[in-house]
Amino acid sequence: MPKVFVYDAFNNRMMTYNLNESDSMPFSTGTTLRVREFRGSSSSPTLWTTTAAMEAWNLTRRSYGKGIHVGYAFKRIWEGGHGTASQHYAGVAFDVGQGQGSTARNAIWKAAKNTGAWGYVEPQSMTPTWVHFDRRYGKPACSGTTSGYPTLRRGAVSTYVLVLQDALNALGYSTRTLDGKFGPNTESALRGFQRAVGLSVDGICGCNTWKKLTAAVVGIGRTRTVID
């Protein structure tokens, strides 16, 4: 039975659900997005997303008016698949419409774009056989880009904290939990990683730390220190 974390930015809180694969994702409308569809090829017993991403999905699905095939949505960072700054690792990105034909994909793209609910709808020239949209949030830690993850420090709550904790745990720097809440154990683990790779040991996950951390962990596979 998968555990699903959902971050609500409006209330700055993390909610937890225990669901079956055939259950609808929390905050999705009806059965338009089931847990197994959001999971895709991920084998993780733990998944995460945000209320904003689910609300954007609902608007897109309502605008399109038909079923949307979800080919790729969630991956944990050590599972890899979409580079070092993938919003799929944060649970807020969707690659959809694979196999639905160009006419359907064009209509899905327009529906997603017209909602105005997604932070990024990838140009069709970049995704010729699928449609990508995501609902990233927070200012990127690295300047001069709209991608990447925000700076995180003690007290933060978000799915990006889940990405951070997941990466540290996979590399053997234990946060003692996977809960999306940046507390003292997460800070201690982060400091240990920063010390080991020659970064400034400040306990803050900024641009340089994200670069080192993601480069080290993306796609390495499940390790014995991963926490679910």
From TrEMBL:
Peptidoglycan binding-like domain: residues covered: 161-213
Pfam families in the cross-refs: PG_binding_1
Protein name (database record): Peptidoglycan-binding protein
